[in-house]
Amino acid sequence: MAEDKEKRQCLECGTEIYGRSDKKFCSDYCRNETHNKNNRDISNYMRKVNNILRKNRRILAKLNPNSKSKVKESTLMEEGFNFAYHTNVYSTKKGGKYYFCYDQGYIKLEDGWLALVERQEYVK
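Now predict its structure.
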């Protein structure tokens, strides 16, 4: 019994596909290549942001070895800290704002000083 089925081609490389009728790619390699091409821009942007956040966290942790310290804002800038990126903001009852990069954070004080803190369990 001969079947008159339309030949299907891999969406990535164009080779003929065998197997399931809903199969779109000839191999995992071609499926992954298509996925990576479709998501490259988003992935690169996310990778860049995550790298900045990790760097910010490393700088805060380095300058805050005892979970609480005070440093000049310029010290963070010299280390390459990017103030535009943080993972969340915690607002105090008095109106202050702690900016966190994961578990490490800071709050701006007077005269260019920052208080560095490590997130406590009760801070959500």
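Strands lie at 68-72, 88-91, 97-101, 104-108, 113-118.
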